[in-house]
Amino acid sequence: MSQVTNFTTEQVTLTCYHVAMNETQNDTNQLTPAEAERFSAIMGACPTTWPWWRGVTYHGGGWDDPCDITFAVDNPEGEGVLKKRLSARQVVRALAAAAHSVPSMKHVNPYDPDLDLDADTADCVLQVAVFGEVVYG
User: Fold this and answer.
1) What is the DSSP code string of 32-78?
2) What is the pLDDT along the chain (137 residues), one digit of tens a residue?
3) In contact, 93 and 69? CB cutoff 8 Å
4) Which pTM was predicted?
5) How many other C-beta atoms lie within 10 A of the C-beta of residue 25?
6) Which of 33, 47, 62, 127 is the most core-located residue (most Cβ within 10 A)?
């Protein structure tokens, strides 16, 4: 099933088409303990320290108890900043998608209970969550 994602800035709207990940649970439900650990591994690695990330806003809780997150990132297609709101579960699902699609992440087991990510790897996960692929670095 294809999913259409619109990114909006003051200057341009980009439409990206990508295959939706299998959805076995509602995105708005609270994260399972295993998902919460993976979310913590992603966001705890400080992936938004790179200059293309312009901001992160948590809705309905902090980074340790999130509901939704809005990511602000430089527009890879030109000027301005894009904002994309995702559920915490969508961020967690992007970990498995990135592990399968990003060559530098082939060694990552997204279901490892001792998952320990560095900032580079976590940045790739967020780019897959926001853009559907790695577009920066």
Assistant:
1) PHHHHHHHHHHHTT-GGGSTTEEEEEEESS-TTS-SEEEEEEE-TTS
2) 334 444 444 433 333 333 333 333 456 578 999 999 999 999 999 999 999 999 999 998 776 777 899 999 999 998 999 999 999 999 999 999 999 999 999 999 999 989 999 999 999 999 999 999 999 98
3) no
4) 0.78
5) 12
6) 127
